[in-house]
Design brief:
two-stranded antiparallel ribbon; 5-stranded parallel beta sheet; 11 helices; single chain; binds thiamine diphosphate; alpha/beta; about 325 residues
Length: about 325
Amino acid sequence: MVKSERWMSQDKLDDFRSLLRLRIFEEIVREQRLEGSIVGSVHLGIGQEALPVGTIPVLGPDDAVFVTYRGHGWALACGVPAEAMFAELMGRATGINGGRGGSAYFSAPAYRFYGENSIVGAGAPHAVGAALAGTYDGTDRVALAVFGDGAMNQGAVHEAMNFASARGLPVLFLCENNYWSEMTPIVETVKDAELHKRARAYGMPGRRIDGNDLTEVREAMGEAATAARAGGGPQLIEAMTARIVGHYIGDVEHYRRPGELDAARESEPVVRVRKALLAAGTDLDTISALEAEVRAELEGAASRALEAKPADPTSAREHLYV
Ligand SMILES: Cc1ncc(C[n+]2csc(CCOP(=O)(O)OP(=O)(O)O)c2C)c(N)n1
């Protein structure tokens, strides 16, 4: 193997490890939710991992990330430690927010992760605010707003896009188009399901990409971030993807068409990169060893989180501005 090929396969192995961390983290979350160590509503991003893995590395240290309730993978990609995230989901005092945020509301600004949000579309105006603040504090901050296709019909998202464009603010509006909004397909709620076309009405660039192709995500988000940072204003990226699990853990998915996920399971990012590795000559033992290593790391983090003290109920009013 020549040197450049070795580099390529090492890069692909690194990609595979990054994708696997998100996937296995959420598989463990699902187990813990079903066993009862995690309570409440939990939304998984299984199948959508190429978006955080491809996007976060193109951002800089002053940038800011705002996501939805489907945000575990985004936080992990930002570098939030897995043990503190498991502990948060389990309501432990050692959680990243002391067990107060849970699955849908945690934040970790020290990692540029300004938080999840369960209100559909609410992160978009927050991102615009962070970008606007950057024009005052002298950083060249780019703010990333991540939301679903359903959120494209929220008034707050419209206001955010309009204001960001009017002011030329560096905001990346990333729509994770997974076709479903809970149990309703996007084609039943809009006349034209090519959502990227709406960018034109706001006077900003917009494009549709394959959100399950890690290389395409990385390139498109890198170009968008560069353009926004250089004064090009906000950018809309519609990333086509599929959530290959229910809307929440426990969703019986009665709304799926028979066989709907067959193609999606073949083209989801973990399967794709795994196939690419095998095609490039990586042997199965190397892949299996990597999978085992990532699983052991995350299972260790989950069991340490489980052993930690639960959050103290008498501290519930801390951090409240009353
Ligand atoms: C303002 C608001 N309206 C409705 C809901 C209920 N709700 C929760 S998730 C969801 C679907 C959103 O779909 P989409 O934006 O496509 O994101 P996805 O869940 O597919 O990632 C809805 C309607 C909510 N949480 N907030």
